[in-house]
């Protein structure tokens, strides 16, 4: 009977192994949070580029950009223009939103998304300041045309 007990693990050994695995998992998840934020920022920039493409199609059909004052009305206007837009993208976190503003003459616009990463390379290449009433100060990424 003594041989049976020597073949298995003790409760203490199992608890130590489970604790070590838990600590390693926690460290990996903490390390991935920055990568996940960068992924969401990349998606935000791609969303603005796709919206920019839809705006250019709209401009070619109407010789001016939509006169909408917010993202939801821009979506409605692009859908009703019958240019192939089914819906506009939303921010991956949903607690943030994208912004759109148009110039008074309808020939220029700005698209804005707030990024999570303050040191993103994209922030060095975007518009800064206030454009058509939209604040484009970092960490906001703006596309201006």
From TrEMBL:
- The signal peptide stretch is none
Q: Which residues cross the membrane?
A: 12-35
The keyword Transmembrane helix belongs to this UniProt entry's keyword annotation: yes
Identify its membrane topology class.
Single-pass membrane protein
* Superkingdom field: Bacteria
Its main subcellular localisation, reduced to a broad class, is membrane
Q: Where in the cell is it found?
A: Membrane
Gene Ontology biological-process entries: protein secretion by the type II secretion system
Q: Which InterPro entries match?
A: Bac_GSPG_pilin, N_methyl_site, Pilin-like
Q: Gene Ontology terms, cellular component aspect?
A: membrane; type II protein secretion system complex
Q: Is NADP included in the keywords of this UniProt record?
A: no
Q: Which UniProt keywords apply?
A: Membrane, Methylation, Transmembrane, Transmembrane helix
Query: Which PANTHER family does this chain map to?
Result: GENERAL SECRETION PATHWAY PROTEIN G, TYPE II SECRETION SYSTEM CORE PROTEIN G
Protein name, UniProt field: Type II secretion system protein GspG C-terminal domain-containing protein
Query: What species was this sequence derived from?
Result: Candidatus Brennerbacteria bacterium RIFOXYD1_FULL_41_16
């Amino acid at each position: 009977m003594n041989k049976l007990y020597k073949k298995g693990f003790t409760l203490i050994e199992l608890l130590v192994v489970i604790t070590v695995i838990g600590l390693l998992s926690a460290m990996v998840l903490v390390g991935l949070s920055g990568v996940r934020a960068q992924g969401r920022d990349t998606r935000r920039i791609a969303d603005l580029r796709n919206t920019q493409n839809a705006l250019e199609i709209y401009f070619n059909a109407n010789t001016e950009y939509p006169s909408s004052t917010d993202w939801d009305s821009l979506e409605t206007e692009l859908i009703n223009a019958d240019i192939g837009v089914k819906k506009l993208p939303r921010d991956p976190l949903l607690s943030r939103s994208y912004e759109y503003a148009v110039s008074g003459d309808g020939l220029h616009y700005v698209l804005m998304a707030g990024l999570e990463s303050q040191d993103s390379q994209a922030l060095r290449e975007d518009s800064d300041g206030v454009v058509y009433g939209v604040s484009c100060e970092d960490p906001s990424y703006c596309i201006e045309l």
